[in-house]
Specification:
Largest sheet: 6 strands, antiparallel
Number of strands: 13
CATH architecture of the largest domain: Sandwich
Radius of gyration: 22 Å
CATH class of the largest domain: Mainly Beta
CATH topology of the largest domain: Immunoglobulin-like
Shape: elongated
Helix content: 25-40%
Number of domains: 2
């Protein structure tokens, strides 16, 4: 990214730039806007890890970035809670102004695509995949009293968390730690763990139901780079595969100043 910016900024101040911004008819643009405009001109040749944050990137990269965002939303919250953080807040709810974008802003490049919601007309009604994942996470963490990371013997690539919830069934969250961009292309791996309940169901961070098996007081599942929620609760609210019900429960479709996971009171 730094190299791409350096290449773009190198032309600022030359005759071409003066021609493009020096006339009275053309609006004055900042060096930042000129640099990012040059970056967009090179978009097709830029690394896909950068392209996916740019407006108008290829659809497959846009979809991939949504999946990465959903995974990391769960991962980072679980890591924070296990480290002793008591409450987290999603600060990027939605654009501040309906219908406004400035793709030539560095803030838009860095954070513009991380919003949970967007406008349809003048109302916050469009829910991005991260909003569904946030709602699912908030639902699963309701009543949480503690989050602990558990070491899986001889499996350092597995990140396993036990979540204790007041008045609710046990919950495990597990994923295989891999490269955030390419890790989803690697095959799932087998996972089994002690399980105290008589039933279990699972849904991943993308809202997709996943099969689990119970045998001899252990639960078995296939684990990938996408965090997996395993619980004795049945995922019946809105169905596990479509988390609309979770979003309605958490009120994500209603504008508020902040959204937070209801953690530790």
């Amino acid at each position: 990214m730094a190299a791409a910016f350096a290449a773009g900024i190198g032309g600022i101040g030359g005759s071409d730039d003066q021609d493009s911004i020096g006339s009275a008819a053309a609006p004055q643009r900042s060096p930042e806007e000129i640099a990012i405009e040059k970056l967009y001109e090179q978009m097709a040749s830029l690394p896909p890890q950068l392209q996916m944050f740019m407006r108008g990137c290829p659809p497959e990269l846009e979809e991939k970035r949504h999946r990465i965002n959903c995974r990391e939303l769960v991962m980072r919250n679980l890591l924070a809670l296990a480290a002793g953080i008591r409450r987290t807040v999603c600060w990027n709810l939605a654009p501040e102004i309906a219908g406004y974008q400035n793709p030539l802003s560095i803030m838009d490049l860095l954070f513009g695509k991380l919003a949970l919601l967007d406008y349809e007309g003048t109302e916050l009604r469009r829910r991005y995949p991260a909003a569904e994942t946030f709602a699912l996470l908030a639902d699963q963490l309701t009543g949480v009293e503690g989050v602990s990371r558990i070491e899986v013997p001889r499996r350092p690539e597995l990140f396993l968390f036990e979540v204790l919830r007041a008045g609710r069934e046990p919950l495990l969250v597990v994923w295989a730690q891999r490269d955030s961009f390419t890790g989803e292309d690697e095959p799932s791996v087998a996972f089994d763990w002690i399980w105290p309940a008589a039933q279990a169901s699972a849904v991943n961070a993308l809202g997709q139901a996943e099969p689990v098996e119970l045998h001899d007081e252990r639960v078995t599942a296939q684990v990938s780079h996408t965090p997996l929620f395993i619980t004795a609760d049945l995922f019946v609210r809105g169905s596990a595969a479509t988390t609309t019900g979770y979003g309605a429960k958490c009120g994500l479709a209603q504008p508020r100043q902040h959204f937070y996971c209801p953690l530790f009171g």
